[in-house]
Amino acid sequence: MGPKRLVDAVLFDTFGTVVDWRSGISRAVAEFAGDAVDTDEFALAWRSRYQPSMKPIRDGDRDFVDLDVLHRENLDTTAAEFGLPLAGDPSAADHLNRAWHRLPAWPDSVAGLTEVKRDFIVGPLSNGHTALLTNMAKHAGLPWDVIIGSDLTRTYKPDPNAYLRTAEILRLPPERVMLCAAHNLDLDAARDAGLRTAFIPRPTEYGPSQRHDLHATSAWDVIARDITDLASQLREHAS
């Protein structure tokens, strides 16, 4: 009998962990607005509305809508805050909103995921919906085995059902699924739901002034430098 693997599936938070949303969104804002706004500040402000916009859905105060809807609502609010008009070119504004489908991978992501994929099921465990995550994978070359979007689980992290329903769709008990994330709070919620956990730092996710998630804040099952190092550690664990 060969060595026992720690888990059967290694799933990944996507925005910030696998793809660099800040540079991708900043570039898309620049294409839309030129130098009319500070594109990094606009990207950060747009992203800052991400979790608050999902809270009414997690709390049961709003029916589920997918991330394209929430991103567009948040874009409208952010554009108004920055004095950036959207109404003059609705198709360009729609294209800007879909920039979340076209984000670049971090430099280690594709090679690292390919290594993890040799021994484990790999896929996103993300608040993105299936079409968004599929488009992102095609754009960035992400080698997922499976894509389970929030439109299938019908909820958003850190609701426990986001983790548990994903494991259920894979027909795996929670303890046979690992979440890898660059966000300690995401891992807290995954561990509370019974999943294994792995942390990798993305210290420039929010830019040079980032002050949180610079390091692991708990004894996660694996703490790695990046996804390639995660693959190595998982392989060593099974050797």
In spatial order, strands of the major sheet run 2-1-3-4-5
State the helicity in percent bands. Answer: 40-55%
Total tally of structural domains? 2
Give average pLDDT, whole number.
96
Name the CATH superfamily assignment of the largest domain. Answer: HAD superfamily/HAD-like
CATH architecture designation of the largest domain? 3-Layer(aba) Sandwich
CATH topology of the largest domain: Rossmann fold
Using only C-alpha atoms, the radius of gyration works out to 18 Å
Low-confidence stretches: none
Structural class: alpha/beta
Distance between the termini: 12 Å
One letter per element, helices H and strands E, the order comes to EHHHHHHEHHHEHEEH
Q: What is the CATH class of the largest domain?
A: Alpha Beta
| Beta strands, count | 5
User: Total helix count?
Assistant: 11
Could you characterize what this model shows?
Keywords: Hydrolase. This is 2-haloacid dehalogenase. Belongs to the HAD-like hydrolase superfamily. S-2-haloalkanoic acid dehalogenase family. This protein has 239 residues and is of the alpha/beta class. It has two domains: 9-20 and 103-237, Rossmann fold (3-Layer(aba) Sandwich), CATH 3.40.50.1000; 21-101, DNA polymerase, domain 1 (Orthogonal Bundle). Helices cover 46% and strands 8% of the residues. It contains eleven helices and five strands. It has helices spanning 21-33, 39-48, 50-58, 67-82, 90-97, 109-117, 130-140, 150-153, 160-169, 184-192, 227-237, and strands at 9-12, 121-124, 177-181, 196-199, 222-223. Helix 2 (39-48) crosses helix 4 (67-82). The chain starts with 8 loop residues before the first strand and ends with a helix.
